[in-house]
Amino acid sequence: MPQRYHPVLVVLHWLLAAFLIGLLIAGTVLLAPVPNDDPAKLLSFRLHMGLGLLTFFLMVLRLAVRLTTRTPSPAVTGNAALDRLARANHWALYLLAFVMAGSGIAMARASGLPDAVFGDGPMPPDFADYTARRVHGLASRLFMALIALHIAAALWHHFIRRDGILARMRLGPR
User: Fold this and answer.
1) In whole angstroms, what is the distance from residue 55 CA to residue 131 CA?
2) How far apart are alpha carbons 172 and 168 in whole angstroms?
3) pTM (two decimals)
4) Which of 62, 68, 90, 133 could cross-link 12 (Cys pair, CB 3.0–4.6 Å)?
5) CA nearest 116: which of 24, 26, 49, 58?
6) What pLDDT, in 10s, does the model give residues 53-65?
7) 73-104 pLDDT, tens per residue?
């Protein structure tokens, strides 16, 4: 078993962490509170949608690499329930990333948003009536909670258990 994750997984992990957290913050702080008739929202949507699509493709790549490369043994805490929770959290993070991308794409298509953002179509007055918007919003909150749990667990391993788990997710010999 390798001691570290594949270098492509490491790079994608940290790149996607920055992208996903940035997208969640931007969606919550820059997009949600701004009315759709504000012209500044179009630029925010361009960035959010473009980075969201890039993130989706990088997530597909990351999942493909994850499923086709050898990985270190699962981290153990000494508590079987916590170990199962950690594995479930990791796979739930993947799932929610894809739910976010899918619901974002579905909302954009249903509302005609790409025509408004990348063309000269009208901006929808509101997104509240779109089921995909509700899924996107709910999934974002759950995603934030799972990311916080993931970060808290990594810090717990690093500072409390001192088991070197963060070394597995940095570049170096495998």
Assistant:
1) 22
2) 9
3) 0.93
4) 62
5) 49
6) 999 999 999 999 9
7) 988 898 999 999 999 999 999 999 999 999 99
3-state helix, strand, coil in the chain (%, to 5): 75, 0, 25
Asked if 9 contacts 67 with a C-beta cutoff of 8 angstroms, the reply is no
Q: Work out the number of other CB atoms within 10 angstroms of the CB of residue 20.
A: 22
Q: If residue 156 lies in a helix (H) or strand (E), which one and from where to where?
A: none
- Contact between 158 and 165 under an 8 Å Cβ cutoff? The reply is yes
Closest listed residue to residue 117, CA positions, set 58, 51, 48: 48
Tell me how far CA of residue 3 lies from CA of 17, 54, 88, 174, in angstroms. 21, 29, 21, 5
Burial 95-115 (b: 16+ CB within 10 A, else e): ebbebbbebbbbbbeebebee
Domains, the chain, ranges and CATH?
A: 7-169 (1.20.950)
Contacts with 45 (C-beta within 8 Å, 6 or more apart), sequence order: 31, 113, 116, 117
Residue with tokens 């690093």: 158
